[in-house]
Amino acid sequence: MASLSFVSSSLRTPSLTLRTTSHSSPKTSVSFSVKAQSLSQDDLKKLAAEKAVQSIKPGMVLGLGTGSTAAFAVSQIGKLLSSGELHDIVGIPTSKRTEEQARSLGIPLVTLDTHPRIDLAIDGADEVDPNLDLVKGRGGALLREKMVEAVAERFIVVADDTKLVEGLGGSGLAMPVEVVKFCWEFNLVRLRDLFKEFGCEAKLRVGEGGEVYVTDNSNFIVDLYFKEPLKDAVAAGWEIGKFEGVVEHGLFLGMATSVIIAGKNGVEVMNK
Ligand SMILES: O=C[C@H](O)[C@H](O)[C@H](O)COP(=O)(O)O
């Protein structure tokens, strides 16, 4: 295996700094129109999701994300369709859960086979860094999410401000890797060893009832826990992807075109 250094700086130049607005070309806009101080975390997720839904136009093919924040967006799309404020859209769900929700709301669904280009995808994230790079997949939907969001013209991430990190892996929570069931332990050990100098722990994901978690694609998930943020997420993603039997990882790099973050101070829109 090629030796890997995670200490080099990112291969890509940061194009956006979270709390700083460039004088020449502002990329961040903050709306303080909502008195957000007293809102719950769910209220904030809803606020971000509903703001993203405002970008939907009739005729669009939509990527429908997965998770508690994306569910607010799907629900709002359903409402707008039933009130007639929105029409002529189709959606591609990124999980069985989202598919069920969308069907129950009467959102017309298609697939990537028939609609290989997507106008707009809206989805949540587990971590968002200052470059708008992401960790996703704590809800287990990373593979379908990445397939759908990779072909989206625009990909808007919606989240509350607890998801902001200075570096990916920095939350101390799981960074998921979807692996085939065959010899999953072999891949768990390889993944742990790849990051061992950073004190990485690797665990097979188990469900709430203690059973092994199985994805919509009938695979397992190995969750990686880092003691410090990845210094070079591009190199990390590249090395993880080289292991045979690894199906996908939760690093979504260079994919988001906008991030909408709702926090106590209002709604912040960050554009690439
Ligand atoms: O697999 C799940 C997805 O990547 C979710 O979008 C992500 O985990 C964020 O979920 P939530 O909005 O529930 O925090």
How would you characterize the overall build of this protein?
- The protein is 25% helix and 24% strand.
- With 272 residues, it is of the alpha/beta class.
- It folds into 2 domains: 28-165 and 254-271, Rossmann fold (3-Layer(aba) Sandwich), CATH 3.40.50; 175-249, 2-Layer Sandwich (Alpha-Beta Plaits).
- The strands form 3 sheets. The protein has a 7-stranded mixed beta sheet with strand order 1-14-13-7-4-2-3. The protein has a 4-stranded antiparallel beta sheet with strand order 9-10-8-11.
- It starts with 27 loop residues before the first strand and ends with a strand.
- Bound molecules: ribose-5-phosphate (R5P).
- Ribose-5-phosphate binds next to helix 2 and helix 4.
Percent of residues in beta strands? 15-25%
**Overall pLDDT, averaged?**
89
CATH class annotation of the largest domain: Alpha Beta
Shape: globular
Question: How many domains?
Answer: 2
**If strands are numbered along the chain, what order do they take across the biggest sheet?**
1-14-13-7-4-2-3
The counted number of beta strands is 14
Assign a percent range to the helix content. 10-25%
What structural class do you assign from the helix and strand content? alpha/beta
CATH topology of the largest domain: Rossmann fold
Radius of gyration over all CA atoms, rounded = 19 Å
Number of helices: 6
- Ranges where pLDDT stays below 50 over 5 or more residues in a row are 1-26
Which molecules are bound in this entry?
A: ribose-5-phosphate
Question: Order of SSEs, N→C?
Answer: EHEHEHEEEHEEHEEHEEEE
Biggest sheet, open or closed, and with what strands and sense?
7 strands, mixed
Examine the secondary-structure arrangement and name the CATH architecture of the largest domain.
3-Layer(aba) Sandwich
Q: Please report the distance between the alpha carbons of the first and last residues.
A: 34 Å
